[in-house]
Amino acid sequence: MLRNLLETGSPLDIFATFIALALIVASFLCLVFIIIGGISFILSAGNEEKIKKAVNTIRFSIIGLVVTFVAFFAVSWISKLLDIPFQLNFSTIVNLMQELFGALQQ
């Protein structure tokens, strides 16, 4: 899909795919930081400074995830407002994720 897109795709399709890739990477990083914050919270052993740092890590990763999805919806909304044929939906993102994970398994 990616190779075919880069060879024959329009600039809008390429832009939409890179937006989808950015959304995937941001979601994955937010998940990783939530897990890191949870592990830090568990291993804090009652130390107030470590607890505060772990809670802030979790909080900021959730805020980052929300900002990422708001940006995705803002780009979609602005493209519809300006009548730009920007085709990006969650099924495209899921298909892209399946292709990426399939390529990693081979």
What form results from the Cα inertia axes?
elongated
Radius of gyration, in angstroms, nearest whole number: 18 Å
How much helix, percentage-wise, in residues? over 70%
Name the quaternary structure: single chain
Report the structural category: mainly alpha
What is the string of SSEs from the N terminus onward?
HHHH
Strand element count: 0
Give the arrangement of secondary structure elements.
Blueprint: H1 2-8, H2 11-42, H3 48-81, H4 90-105
What features would you describe in this structure?
- The protein has one domain (23-105).
- The chain has helices spanning 2-8, 11-42, 48-81, 90-105.
- Helix 2 packs across helix 4.
- The mean pLDDT is 83.
- The protein is mostly helical.
- Helix content is 84%, strand content 0%.
Fill in the keyword field for this structure.
106 residues; elongated
Outline:
The chain has 106 residues and is an all-alpha fold. The protein has helices at residues 2-8, 11-42, 48-81, 90-105. The mean pLDDT is 83.
